[in-house]
Amino acid sequence: MAPTPEAAAAWDAYRLDLWGSCVWWYCTGELLDLLTDWGTWGVMLDDILEVDSPELIRDAVAEMNRILDSNDPDALTDDANPFTVGLSDLWRRTQSRGMSLRWQRRTADRFSRFLGSYLRDAAYRRDGYWPTVEHYLDNRMWSTASLAYICLNDLQHCCELSDNIVMHPVLLAMQRATGDHIALVNDITGVHREAAWNDHINVVPLIQRQYRCSQEEAIRHAITMADQRMYAFLAMERALPELCAGLGVTPAEQECIGHLTRGLRSWLSGNIEYHLISPRYEERPRPASRHTAAWIADSVRFAVPAS
Fold first, then answer.
1. pLDDT for the residue numbered 180
2. CB of 247 within 8 A of CB of 152?
3. CA nearest neighbour of 204 among 229, 178, 227, 225
4. How far apart are CA 133 and CA 118, in angstroms?
5. CB under 8 Å to 111, separation ≥6 — which residues?
6. Quick check: 39 and 22 in contact, CB under 8 A?
7. Residue 30: what pLDDT?
8. CA distance 192 to 246
């Protein structure tokens, strides 16, 4: 996906290998390699797809979605862009882990929604639309791919839960709290980076606009919101034994629920750790400069707006 040694060096500087070891610290070997590759693909793609018109990325998103919609890693053309080729490799390696078709479809649907979120955000930038903070967070859990990556936690133990259990209101609320926390941490630590190219699709400027406050006040408000999600998660986690008893889940299902919640915990802590140590979130691009990754985007056929 990095077409030149210079591009590879730029991505290496972000230390995405540390991201994998932070959020999936309990994995080793080939599985850790696979999960780290998923994260690297997602972070690189995130920079490339953050544009100000959905038309610039619509074909690329459709190309990647063909793999997810068909559940076929070979559903790509000879001239597929490097990110589609990367997704093909990731999906093939993920399928080889032996998870059920039901699990594959759930995971593919979540990654497809991740890709679709960039079309929506690009339209917001094009139209100068400022969503409410609440509406933004409803969508943001998809654009971080957090719910998709949470599915990958199951690979460690080859553990699967039915859709009814995964989508139970309490477990879904725990996943949502985790997704919100991930998004808020990402936006807080990346706000100066994104402000440099006047990107308002970030919770901090949205809070500023909605509550008519300063950036510093908005950051404090966002931190409070993240803390609230953490407290809500911990409260629901404490209530899980009673919930499992009431649902009448089997011992195997209860073990899987335990794996899910421990995976969510590792994401909550590991995501904070990575954002504090990665140079990615210390970048301060020149005012009105093009997107940091735009020169890479040019070389892989992803059109981006000129400054």
1. 96
2. no
3. 225
4. 17
5. 68, 145, 148
6. no
7. 95
8. 47
Nearest to 180 by CA among 236, 136, 234: 136
d(CA 146, CA 9): 26
Q: How far is CA 237 from the centre of its chain?
A: 22
Mean per-residue pLDDT of the chain: 88
The two structure tokens encoding residue 236: 């629901």
Would you state the structure tokens that stand for residue 177, as one six-digit string? 């709290």
Place of tokens 């936006």: 187
Quote the pLDDT of residue 158: 87
Q: In this predicted model, what pLDDT tens digit does every residue of 191-243 receive, in sequence order?
A: 988 887 778 999 999 999 999 999 999 999 999 999 999 999 999 999 999 88
pLDDT at 299: 45
Q: And the tokens for 133?
A: 């903070």
CB-neighbour burial class of residue 234 (10 A; exposed 0-12, middle 13-18, buried 19+): middle
Q: Amino acid letter at 226?
A: A
d(CA 85, CA 268): 30
Average pLDDT over residues 122-137: 94
